[in-house]
Amino acid sequence: MHEWALAQSVIFTALKQRPKSRLKITIALGELQQVDEEIFRLGLKEFAKLEKLKATFSIKRVPAKLRCNNCNKEWLFSKGELSEREAESIHFVPELAHTYIGCPQCGSPDFTVVEGRGVWVEKIEVE
Amino acid sequence: MDPRLDIIGERIKGVKRLIAVAGGKGGVGKSSVASVLALKLASQGRAVGLLDLDFCGPTPHLILGADTSEFPKEDKGVIPPKVAGIKLMSVAYYSKEANPLRGSELSNSIKELLAVTLWGKLDYLILDMPPGTSDTFLDVAKLLKPEFILITTPSKLSKATVEKNKNLIEEMGLKVVATIENLGKDIRTDSSFEQAVGSTKLLLNTQFSADLNKITEQLKRNLNTT
Questions:
Q1: Run of H or E residues at B111
Q2: Which of B3, B55, B106 is the closest to A12 by Cβ?
Q3: In sequence order, what are the residues at sequence separation of 6 or more whose Cβ sits closer than 8 angstroms to the Cβ of residue B183?
């Protein structure tokens, strides 16, 4: 599953720190990517084990805030009227939101994802 | 920290040669060369991947007649579907519409696909580039450091642009393995090509394909195949 690939990338970021003791990794999951947290956590656990990384994971979900570049309207992403296929496409490539979503005020596909795009490692601390 | 940047090296570690097919102008035949080159190498027993990086105008899936009705399968990542033996990855699996993307969004899309696509072992990963030296070019140069094949037409404007592209690529410490003139001295105008689009079998029998023999042989030299 695709969540595993994303989880593996987080483990590789942690490994770059050449950790000598247990790490606490804080991860933001942007709602635009609609990551299945349960599978993602399982992926983190399995890849950490595989790479012999000792870590605990703190995951917070971040609502996807979008701002129209045409009329400056700000709104929060929701799957709303997207078809399952469209939502799934955005799950794989979040930028395809521009293909399937328009500004609720003016309809423009030209908007900025201000926050809440996808997987982001916020901090890595030594426990 | 963007974790995708830390996994890209892992995703391409099984690739022996990364070849970006690029050029300064649109419509010169980059996608056609990238697709048919991938097809020729695959038909000669090489393990080949083709990554379509022209997110705003994807076409290799049309050239090769790929079925994009289903999403690619997943197994701890995305498995690029095979078309005539080529592992093809394209935004076309996920979007049938025009994709209105700004530069930073193109950059994000490319990183996303590079981070999740599992190529496995490949002799060649061919990158079909959009025209020019904007965000996609800069990301590819930085993240993948490929060799380049540049495509031009006999047009003075196209040639002048590609010459500047070549200088830039070399100044960035990357290699241009060939500059190919399409619709001219290297690849002749081939009226059968348009009819062959969508059929890998017909494509391999075109003059266009025969005119790519030289570059195909050049790429096959000095490579222990997978």
A1: helix B103-116
A2: B3
A3: B29, B153, B154, B189
Q: For B39-87, what is each residue's pLDDT tens digit?
A: 999 999 999 999 999 999 999 999 999 999 999 999 999 999 999 999 9
**Collapsed DSSP state (helix, strand, coil) of residue B17:** strand
- pLDDT score at A80: 86
pLDDT at res. B225: 60
Query: B70 CB near a chain A CB, below 8 Å?
Result: no
Q: What is the maximum span of chain A, computed from C-alpha positions, in angstroms? A: 53
How many angstroms separate the Cα of B105 from the Cα of each of A96, A102, B71?
A: 9, 15, 21
Q: How far is CA A31 from CA A114, B86, B103, B210, in A?
A: 12, 34, 22, 49
Rounded Cα distance between B174 and A125, Å, is 37
The alpha-carbon radius of gyration of chain A (Å, integer) is 17
Partner-chain contact A119 B113, CB within 8 Å = no
The ipTM is: 0.95
- CATH fold of the domain at B4-220: Rossmann fold (3.40.50)
The CA-atom distances, in angstroms, between B178 and each of B68, B166, B181, B206, B216 are 31, 10, 10, 21, 11
Q: Which residue of A has its CA nearest to B92?
A: A89
Residues 6+ away with beta carbon under 8 Å from B60: B31, B34, B35, B38, B50, B52, B66, B88, B90, B128
Q: How far apart are CA B72 and CA B85, in angstroms?
A: 15
A-B CB pairs within 8 A amount to: 93
Q: Are strands B82-83 and B86-89 parallel, antiparallel or unpaired?
A: antiparallel
Q: Is the pLDDT of residue A1 over 80?
A: no
Which two tokens mark A79? Answer: 């799957």
- Residue B196: HSE in the Cβ half-sphere, 13 Å Cα cutoff: 17
List the domain boundaries for chain B.
Answer: 4-220
- Please report how many Cα atoms fall inside a 13 Å half-sphere around the Cα of residue A15, on the Cβ side: 18
Domains of chain A with bracketed CATH: 2-126 (3.30.2320.80)
Q: Is B187 helix (H, G, I), strand (E, B) or coil?
A: strand
